[in-house]
Amino acid sequence: MNAKAMSPAPDAALITASYAADFERCRLLCETVDRHVTGASHHYLLVEHRDLALFQQLEGKRRTVIDERELLPSWLRDIPDPTSLFKRRVWLSRKAPPLRGWHVQQLRRMAIAERIEQETLVYVDSDVAFLRPFDCARFWLSGKLRLFRRDGVLLKPGHDNHRIWSANAAAVLGIAAPEISPHDYISTLIAWRRSSVRDMLARIEQVSGRHWVEAVSARRKFSECMIYGRFVDEVADGAGHYVGAEEFCRVHWTGTPLTDMQFEAFVAAMSPEQVAIGMQSFIGTDLGRIRRLVVA
Q1: Disulfide check for 136: which of 39, 58, 195, 271 has CB 3.0–4.6 Å away?
Q2: What is the spatial distance between Cα 280 and Cα 264, in angstroms, rounded to a whole number?
């Protein structure tokens, strides 16, 4: 490998957006990050205001909890949702349609780029656990950051939501054609360049004439990964990035809760480049089982 490829990678920050229902999963993530992850100077947990005290239990020398009110405009505020008998939250404003927690988590992930200084932003969900050593420098090659992209996926049957997200990404970025990209950019344990995110947000405001949060939220059906991917590929012409399709995290996206035997088989099927697993929290796999098997 030449000297250029071996040059030190820019500093990295791990970014996790979470909420109270995923707190114990996030605790397990933090434990496995501390055990296995190198190459990141800090881990930021992005939470809504009412969850701040709960998540501050996880703070440490290299981990900080950030209140979303420090990241998002003051005109966007959450209240108990009466349509769910006040069990859920809804984010209301005069500048955007009502938003749910999954919308606002995506906005936090974009907004953090305006708050921190690390150039490498490594995004990892709170229902992920690391099982193997991982150096965040793996995202870099010859001064370029790895853009996760699965080519041609949106040309295949299915993926209806992905096509909507892709079209809305084009609209907010001012991409006239194609309306829908053939590529998928969505995964967990991926990285973005902070400077590129800031350029992306500036582009959205230039195109829309509005604050980027207002512009992104207006369409309601959006994906932060799709917006970033299309920005890098079609607005920035790939500058500062190279493309990779390997997934570093093996995720159980849908289906039923796993038994111990199924969990062990799932882990055994990890490919050599995969260092973490993700158990989607809404599936309901028992966290105690996950913790026991992960620790073992």
Answers
A1: 39
A2: 16
The answer to whether 237 and 89 have CB atoms below 8 angstroms apart is: no
Q: Are 46 and 17 in contact (CB under 8 A)?
A: yes
pLDDT digits 0-9 by tens, 178-194: 999 999 999 999 999 99
| Burial per residue of 90-101, b for 16 or more beta-carbon CB atoms within 10 angstroms, e otherwise | bbbbeebeebeb
CB within 8 Å of 58: residues ≥ 6 apart:
26, 27, 30, 45, 65
pTM of the complete model: 0.93
How far is residue 242's CA from residue 190's CA, in Å, rounded to a whole number? 13
| Of 201, 100, 192, nearest in space to 147 by CA | 192
- The torsion region of residue 146 among left (phi > 0), alpha (psi -120 to 50) and beta comes to beta
Does the domain formed by 12-295 have CATH 3.90.550.10?
yes
